[in-house]
Amino acid sequence: MKCSRCKQLACVSLPSHNSGFCAECYPLFFTRQVETAIRREKMFTREERILVALSGGKDSLSLMLELALQGYAVTGLHIDLGIPGSSEKARAKVETFCAAHGLKIQVLEMEKEGLPIPDVKAHVNRPVCSVCGRIKRHHFNRVALEGGYDALATGHNLDDEVARLFANTLRWDTAYLSDQGPVLPAREGFVRKVKPLFRLSEFETANYAFLKGIEIHSDPCPYASGASFTGHKELWGELEHRSPGQKFQFYQGFLKNGKPAFAAREKEIGEPLAPCCECGSPTSAGTCSVCRIKAAVRESKAKTTGA
Ligand code: Q46
Ligand code: ZN
């Protein structure tokens, strides 16, 4: 196959775009997709300050590099979860990457926040990943608001978005369906959230990271439970193989036809939010879920240590 741009030998084939690219031209394809996402969805401008959530994986590091290369004012935020044998490696990758590219970075340690994930796992009787995800989202939002950032950017790609949409649809979870998309506008207590990689698949992002020589943290988290999303991604991989482009069509169809209806419904029945009495984050329950988790960890630890 020949490169769709320069006609040299292609090294990446993209059936869903009916094209292929050589190593030099591929990053340009990636750049165009990110530019289109930002422009069409009105994600942010060059005058705005963007906080980028950095896990150390291919998606977040590729996003950070690409936005910096495009001239956006980006700062990385890494959350050190305190998971032995894993978190220190992820943090090292992020710090090395940012130092190598001269990018600003902030690290937030869950240990210092009273919420190291091993303690959460040991003392909270709920699936650790759902609690961990909630804790991360809470802190990304809080740091973005406190730092006066205009938007929080995450590295969610098309496969992540489609797998999540599919899971929410299987459950007909209208609250989540109303709250999914490449841009979630700012509202009281919430920073604007954007996903500039939503047009790009996992494969496409992995190629970019590889061709740009980004060293990523790829070890699986020791607490990962083979979440249902993995199965959904495999299923969608099969559908995409049979009919290239279907993933993107499904997601775009939802944004055009499904999301507006779910958003209107949730506006009518959604619960009103007020600031958490402990931390000020928006909640419908007096004390927010993260403050309640923190208290539960503290109490359970005190009981087990007899303190
Ligand atoms: S870090 Fe946290 Fe993930 Fe580990 S405990 Fe689960 S959610 S798997 S992305
Ligand atoms: Zn709170």
UniProtKB/TrEMBL annotation:
Its Gene Ontology biological processes? tRNA wobble position uridine thiolation
Q: Where is the tRNA(Ile)-lysidine/2-thiocytidine synthase N-terminal domain?
A: 50-219
- Looking at the record, the residues that make up the 2-thiouridine synthetase TtuA-like N-terminal LIM domain are 2-26
Q: Where does Zn(2+) 2 bind?
A: 276, 279, 288, 291
Q: Which GO terms describe its molecular function?
A: ATP binding; metal ion binding; transferase activity; tRNA binding
This protein's GO CC annotations: cytosolic tRNA wobble base thiouridylase complex
| UniProt keyword annotations, A-Z | ATP-binding, Metal-binding, Nucleotide-binding, Transferase, Zinc
- Which Pfam family would be a valid example here? TtuA_LIM_N
Residues annotated for Zn(2+) 1 binding in this entry: 3, 6, 22, 25
InterPro entries to which the protein is assigned, alphabetical: Rossmann-like_a/b/a_fold (IPR014729), TilS/TtcA_N (IPR011063), tRNA_thiolation_TtcA_Ctu1 (IPR035107), TtuA-like_LIM_N (IPR054306)
List positions binding ATP: 53-55, 59, 79, 155, 160
What is the protein name stated in its UniProt record? Answer: tRNA(Ile)-lysidine synthetase
